[in-house]
Model the fold of this input.
Amino acid sequence: MLVLRPMSADDVAAVAAVEKECFSDAWSEGLLQDMLKSPYDEAWVLVRQDGILCGYLNVRFLSGEGELMRIAVKKEFRGHGLSRKLMDQMVKSAKEKEAFDLTLEVRAGNEAAINLYKSYGFKKEAVRRGYYHNPTEDAFIMWRRGLLGITT
Done:
């Protein structure tokens, strides 16, 4: 059984470990702690009953928009719909905050993530050439405009 709950300072070390596993540009513990203090950021974790952190999500809400800053699921827990649980929470939070337009950036080669985002109504609107490093890759900028049409 999994519990979805707001991220706390006690989760920072485990989230930092997920960052290192999932991203070539992993956020530091200090950056994660700063994110928790931000009035614009909201972060959620998925944790097993035994306390193992499986994944997390960070969304920034500002000026009526939401930006998916990070979403990550540990490799051993992928393929079981955990990203969808996190995305559903993002949609719920966006509706509560009346942030009806959502954006994100994603590696051009990350087909699994792109397909997930498309299933939530995101569409590619721009490309940032050579944005990512290790390896160098373009970033797709995707938007979901008019969140009222999504039901969760």
